[in-house]
Specification:
Blueprint: H1 9-19, E1 23-27, H2 34-41, E2 49-52, H3 56-68, E3 73-76, E4 81-82, E5 88-91, H4 97-101, E6 108-112, H5 123-132, E7 138-143, H6 149-158, E8 163-167, E9 174-179, H7 194-204, E10 210-214, H8 217-226, H9 241-247, H10 249-256, E11 259-262, H11 268-280, E12 286-290, E13 303-306, E14 310-313, E15 316-319, H12 322-329, E16 340-345, H13 368-380, H14 385-393, H15 407-411, H16 422-430, E17 433-437, E18 443-445, E19 450-453, E20 457-460, E21 466-468, E22 483-490, E23 493-506, E24 509-512, H17 514-523, H18 535-550, E25 553-560, E26 563-569, E27 574-579, E28 585-586, E29 591-594, H19 605-609, H20 617-623, H21 635-640, H22 647-656, H23 662-668, H24 688-696, H25 718-726, H26 742-761, H27 768-788, H28 797-802, H29 805-812
Parallel strand pairs: 1-7, 1-8, 2-5, 2-6, 3-5, 6-7, 9-16, 10-12, 10-13, 11-12, 13-16, 20-28
Antiparallel strand pairs: 3-4, 14-15, 17-18, 17-29, 19-27, 20-21, 22-23, 23-24, 23-26, 25-26, 27-28
Amino acid sequence: MVSLIIPDKWQQDAVNLLREGRDVVLQAPTGAGKTYVFELLYESLRGQAIYTVPTRALANDKLAEWRTRGWDVGISTGDVSENLGARVVVATLETQKGRFLRGEGPRLLVVDEYQLLADPTRGTNYELILSLAPPETQILLLSGSVANPEDIVTWFRRIGRSVELIVHRERPVRLEEIMLNDLPVQAPSTIHDYWPRMIAKALLADLGPLLIFAPRRNAAEELAQALLTVSTLDEPLAISQEQAMIAGEPLAKLLRHRIAYHHSGLSYAVRAGIIEPLAKRGQLSVVVATMGLAAGINFSMRSVLITGTHYMAGNVQKHVRPDELLQMFGRAGRRGLDEAGYALVTPDVPRLHEAYPLKLKRSEPLDWPSFIAIMDVAASRSEDPFVKAIDLSRRLFTSKMLTLGVERFYETGFRPCEIRVDRERGRFVKRHQIEMKNSMGRWQKQPPATQSTLGGLLVRTNQDAWRPALRDPASLSGVGFGVLCKCRLGNGVFEYGREVTIATVSEKRWAPVKWLRKLLRERYPLMPQKKFLTESEFKEKLLPIVASEIDGEFWNFGRRGSTISARFRFGHRAASGYLDEFGRLLADPVTQRSYPDICQACQFRPECESMELTMSPAFAWRQLGLIDKTGKPTRRGILFSFFNQGEGLAVAAALEEEEYPIEDLVFDLGNLRAGHRFALDESLYSGRLGAICRKTYARADYPGYLEMGVPLAYGAGASEVIRAIIEEGTPRNRLVNESLRHGDIERAITEWRSLLRQVMHAPDYDWERWRALKNASAQYVDSTQSAAQQPLPLLLPAQMKRYQPKYFLARNR
């Protein structure tokens, strides 16, 4: 017997519009049948359809469902690529960016849960792909939690697309709110804790099965364990020996009581292979899930309870948004099984009225890698890269004009300086050059100070004329000791020096004066101390000492009666000044600040001077070394464009470090998507890759791309765990601890392999180290495919404490 499902009118309207070649933005509650609109199109598809979902888990779920129907379906999720020429390919949207950057696209692009357009991390990719979709690609957007779908329609029409909005507000299963405290049933007296008592009341009131959202992994597990005392089921759930082995005994025991917890620490085999199928078949009474996985859960239960409004995302505490509440409550009510779904509440937890759709607005950062990629294509075609980037920015989802920071250069005319980046030009004009008045009274650019001698230095007079520094007694202020004297050089020329008394003479015997005798005793105790010396002895032995002490050059002797003095010149002493264009060294010339030469007569100088020096994308790209002054991407920029977010910055910086072995880098890439869980008590940003990033990018912060100089999802420690498993064959259960779970390790390997696959399939670039990294990535992608997908046997808590990554790795080095 074949069951016939007749589409609702809104579903038929959407299908008809798509068959007419229009784009469709479809707004309908969770479970209303949005996906069915696409399924109705399958037989009439005139080309390939790409159906995108937010998570790999949902992609695998759709793949299995549609293959069961006999459809021709492939999958592309970064870590897995299979049957990419199929009639339908289920994908995560990021995997499709490359083809859209090339101006290509499928016949139909379906974006499920398109509210991710506002996601601060992934939204830039969603926006870029929708902006770049060619006219021949139809678009179907699906969501149940967007407050302003009409703004999406306006955006599509602004960029020349033919689009219609379909809104259906009625839930297939009505949603009601029930206050748990007011239920007329009583929990058994043996149950003492608050939430177990509330959940027991819900089960006794026939409101199960229940989907409960808890803020953290440990909270989810602890609540599930506490519910063992609540279970009132007559028949335990029979699970196979294989399922029990994969799940581990603590979870297997819960499953037998029809209770489960669900979080990212569990392996994919446990989440998608055991818990989710059991929940979909209605064989579980209670599932306690973490809030972070709300968008990735693809099953509904009769009632939903949300136990808090905060949850941990990585190492950051986040508040549950109203649209996230809407998604969670939207899982209440099973179509075809329940007449109503129930939002279970208490006075202290979120209420149904607190859940409402999200008003979409674009996330703040632009998709820098895509812009750089577009600019590289333009440069290769001898087109202006900045013009292409501006054109792309005009196509983005925004109610206000986006600026790249080069617009003024192109809007108001050519600048003689040819500096295209507005902020860079503003800084240039404000970096006034200093001019000095030279020895001929003319203004010239002041050069850097030059080291020379006092003998070659000129100083200014009160009449603004110049004369040798040694003809000004002030030039010897603080130089040497003794009294000033004039050293006459002949022809009326003189310079100032210093004269100091050194000896008295009697009958051709020279006796050092008192200060000199004291100096000889204190500083030259090994020199024979003679009361009288001949003139030649004095000149040979004591005169050099006096010259050294005064730091002057001996000129001549002077005699007044029996007293002998020595005169010293100081022309050799070091001095600094500014060499003018006539070759004269000037001390302290008159100066003035002046605009750079090229700005002197520029008509745009006032505009450049008044420019606010705020950060702009183009200026950031220049600071990071991604483009040259014309907008042409550099080698670093080209590699950056091959990746998402800040990952390309890390890869480029590592490859620039010639001493960084590729065989180490290929594993260290595992840290780029690891987050905080692998760092343990070590620095989150440690490791060689982190250190190179922080050095290369000067610990800079660029929202959406770098934090303290490293990509946002970076987490030290994952590379060591991955290397231990892949290269050394370490059993993964030895690396598990209470904070690092099987699912974390599994996901780290999956993300690492996904990144290696991205490197492997990235465009070629003529650089030996880049090609070496591509080859190394290809080597590990295939060899780790099967290993990363193996189910992980769970350990008991006591065993977890024994084997910690830090302990194990240290022991095996």
